[in-house]
Amino acid sequence: MAIERTLSIIKPDATENNNVGGILQLIEKSGLRIVAMRRMHLTKAQAGGFYEVHKERPFFGELVDFMTRSPVVVSVLEGEDAVAKYREVMGATDPKKAADGTIRKLFAKDIGENSVHGSDSLENAKREIAFFFAEADLL
Ligand code: ATP
Ligand code: MG
User: What predicted TM-score, i.e. pTM, was given to this entire model?
Assistant: First the structure.
């Protein structure tokens, strides 16, 4: 294992419901450290660009509408095995299948409005971090 960085997005359903603090608390309790953070309202172009890999999926339009509905909180998390560790803390994409104690089990409504995003590989983490943060934000 190695020290890694991963990208987290606290999604619109979670900012609307004032769950930002609760989610950040679970992240910190897991041992991951928040090394950069920013609240922003994504444009359709930003959301579509970020989720470009899903553009052929039937839910793409719905996903872009959802991600631009309200502000999000993007952050960079650092720690041992951070990519896999944060996926564990998030829980399964569908909150009905998420393990007890995970962010999605505790806060998410359904498979679409599932409160958080986390990078799914180290390679994607690098790309996603660069999408939102400049080198100078990440010293
Ligand atoms: P994320 O990439 O947001 O961390 P994930 O990796 O668990 O989530 P993906 O398969 O990458 O899941 O899907 C990206 C996002 O698209 C999901 O988090 C969810 O918001 C939305 N999504 C996925 N499947 C569906 C679906 N069947 N219906 C509606 N929205 C969906
Ligand atoms: Mg994904």
Answer: 0.97
